[in-house]
Lecithin retinol acyltransferase (Muntiacus muntjak), 230 residues
Amino acid sequence: MKNPMLEAVSLVLEKLLFISKFKFFSSGAPGEDKAGNTLYEINSFLRGDVLEVPRTHLTHYGIYLGDNRVAHMMPDILLALTDDRGLTQKVVSNKRLILGVICRVASIRVDTVEDFAYGAEILVNHLDRSLKKKALLNEEVAQRAEKLLGITPYSLLWNNCEHFVTYCRFGTAISPQADKFCENVKIIIRDQRSVLASAVLGLASIVCLGLASYTTLPAIFIPFCLWMAG
């Protein structure tokens, strides 16, 4: 007979491993340890093309506007702190990006192809094939992107760089990446072992922190909600 405690601990470790391997945002910002010296064939890009930069788990998207300019959505905490365009127009660092994701503030901005991709491979119009949708005319795509330039609310699931690009390219804002993440969350919720794991963690918090409303209520309601959702 399996030990319920060991099974619950195993499940928690499994979920933590899943989370650690999953990047929760499309990182288009340069990392401190990457070199941005890759040469791109800019002349092969057409105004209105969708440029895609694949990362380990997710992809960052932008719309090519011509003249080595790419419009793309980037979370940036500085937008909430200052109106100084001299500061906010600089390439967004990873720290600015992560804090922007947390605070849900972003902008649709224009960067060079090099700053947009930062050394990564660029795919062109790959969404056309993967989504099997008919794209709008390239000029209309570019004009849609230009009209949306500026500060915008940000959401990993409801308003990210992929939503921006698909709206410009196809007229409908969708994000297959966000949909896939939601499906993974559903799988976790529907796994009845999650109920056991949350109950064990709830009891552990009560034992460690004492019997109080901030420990007891979550210990009761989280397993109950998971049970009902499953």
Remarks:
- Residues 191-229 form one domain.
- The two ends are 24 Å apart (CA to CA).
- Residues 58 and 210 are 41 Å apart (CA to CA).
